[in-house]
């Protein structure tokens, strides 16, 4: 009901179920539709990452409400005119750059909320952007209370950073079969007798207008492209590698994207392909770092703690001679890679690993969708992860064209570069 009022839903609204049911935002999309008697428009995953197909789908199905992650909204452009009325950004931090793209043309909202408090706890309708000033996560929705507390559990005044706690009807009962974690995260609400509140682990502060500014995580957990990731889990797997003695993983941000960078100490540098292959045995693709930086030792502060400020920023560079396209297929692939990675074609070698160039899993999905449409093929993302170079994909496209094979019948050794 709170969001029904906030969004001003009408009988003509049609809501896209953007999120898979494995992602908590799907709960909001499904029930926002069903509880208000509105059509829920389903979409196949393959249609999400092709600009033309996605825009055509929105118009054909007269979608008015799109709720997606900032990473997706940054990665794909939305053509005008269309039937959209509002765009909701949620699941990770919304940048001023992203908000500027949509305000004026659409109602634009920035949402915040952990899964443990039933998806959304705060909402901000963004009508203006003040330069590069951060977009607030808004104010609590109906029947929800948000507190910013210090380490002693005391309320903090406006402008002072502290941990966010969420109370109200949306707070869940806890974690199934995990009483220890439940008791740690779901604590008694001292301001509402008999009720629980959820300790988010997020840091924020009250702003003068009564909204909240999100300042990051208290612990090593981060959100990247809508997924919660424990950096310690990645570090643990790196340290389990036979040749790695020290490791740390950080989330880096620039104007275009967010990405994970792994720093490691070993007797000698380990090939990136080998490191990614090793980590992929234990971690989901969305947890794999984009960059891996070999160091003789990790920088420390005078007190002996890791000095994160001294960790080097990754640089895109070619190793050895750059190999230029040798045929039209490689040239066409180079153009697509250049656009997806936002790199000049002269910096991309056809034998360079996609992930060494700064690509991540979401961009790989966009890339393969573009390639399959351009060449009328059906090369799987799984196969691309095994042969992520322009040279390999070009040879694979030629082989599929010549014998009309399906990619699962291809001998990968023949195409690995």
Short summary of the structure?
By secondary structure, the chain is α/β, with parallel strands linked by helices.
Can you characterise this structure?
The chain has 417 residues and is of the alpha/beta class. Strand 11 and strand 12 form a beta hairpin. Helix 10 crosses helix 13. The chain starts with a helix and ends in a 14-residue tail after the last helix.
- Radius of gyration equals 23 Å
Q: Which H/E pattern describes the elements?
A: HEHEHHEHEHEEEEEHEEEEEHEEHEHHHH
The computed structural class is alpha/beta
- What's the overall average pLDDT, rounded? 87
Q: Please bin the fraction of helical residues.
A: 25-40%
How do the strands of the widest beta sheet line up side by side?
A: 3-4-5-6-7
Contiguous low-pLDDT stretches (5 residues minimum) are none
Strand percentage lies at 15-25%
Q: Between the first and last Cα atoms, what is the distance in angstroms? A: 55 Å
Q: Count of helices?
A: 13
Write the layout of secondary structure elements.
Layout: H1 2-7, E1 15-17, H2 25-34, E2 40-42, H3 45-48, H4 51-60, E3 65-68, H5 70-75, E4 86-89, H6 96-102, E5 107-112, E6 122-125, E7 139-140, E8 144-149, E9 162-168, H7 179-185, E10 186-188, E11 196-206, E12 212-217, E13 221-224, E14 227-230, H8 231-239, E15 244-253, E16 258-266, H9 272-280, E17 291-295, H10 328-341, H11 361-375, H12 381-386, H13 390-403
Parallel strand pairs: 1-2, 3-4, 4-5, 16-17
Antiparallel strand pairs: 5-6, 6-7, 8-9, 9-11, 10-11, 11-12, 13-14, 15-16
Helix pairs in contact: 10-11, 10-13
């Amino acid at each position: 009901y709170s969001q029904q009022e906030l969004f001003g839903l009408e009988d003509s609204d049609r809501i896209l179920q953007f999120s898979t049911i494995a992602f908590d935002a799907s709960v909001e999309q499904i029930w926002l539709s069903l509880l208000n008697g509105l059509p829920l428009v389903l979409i196949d995953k393959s249609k999400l990452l092709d600009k033309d197909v996605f825009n055509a789908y929105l118009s054909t199905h007269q979608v008015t409400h799109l709720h997606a992650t900032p990473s997706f909204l940054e990665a794909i452009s939305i053509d005008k005119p269309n039937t959209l009325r509002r765009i909701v950004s949620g699941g990770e931090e919304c940048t001023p750059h992203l908000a500027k793209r949509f305000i004026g043309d659409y109602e634009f909202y920035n949402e915040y909320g952990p899964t443990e408090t039933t998806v959304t706890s705060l909402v901000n309708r963004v009508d203006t952007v003040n330069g590069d000033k951060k977009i607030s996560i808004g104010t609590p929705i109906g029947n929800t209370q948000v507190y910013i507390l210090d380490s002693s559990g005391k309320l903090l005044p406006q402008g002072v950073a502290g941990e966010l706690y969420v109370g109200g009807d949306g707070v869940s009962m806890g974690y199934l079969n995990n009483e220890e974690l439940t008791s740690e995260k779901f604590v008694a609400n001292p301001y509402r007798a008999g009720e629980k509140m959820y300790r988010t682990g997020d840091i924020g502060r009250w702003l003068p207008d009564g909204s909240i500014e999100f300042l990051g995580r208290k612990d090593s957990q981060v959100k990247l492209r809508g997924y919660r990731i424990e950096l310690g889990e990645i570090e643990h797997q790196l340290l389990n590698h036979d040749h790695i003695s020290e490791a740390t993983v950080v989330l880096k941000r620039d104007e275009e994207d967010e990405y994970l960078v792994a720093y490691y100490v070993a007797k000698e540098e380990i090939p990136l392909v080998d490191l990614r292959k090793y980590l992929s045995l234990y971690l989901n693709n969305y947890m794999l770092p984009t960059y891996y930086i070999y160091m003789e030792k990790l920088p420390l502060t005078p007190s002996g703690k890791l000095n994160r400020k001294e960790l080097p920023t990754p640089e895109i560079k070619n190793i050895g001679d750059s190999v230029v396209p040798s045929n039209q297929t490689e040239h066409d692939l180079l153009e697509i890679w250049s656009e997806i990675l936002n790199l000049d074609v002269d910096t991309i070698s056809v034998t360079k690993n996609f992930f060494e160039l700064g690509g991540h899993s979401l961009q790989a999905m966009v890339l393969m969708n573009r390639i399959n449409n351009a060449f009328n093929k059906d090369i799987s993302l799984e196969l691309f992860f095994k042969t992520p170079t322009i040279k390999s994909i070009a040879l694979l496209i030629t082989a599929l064209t010549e014998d009309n094979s399906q990619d699962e019948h291809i001998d990968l050794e023949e195409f690995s570069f």
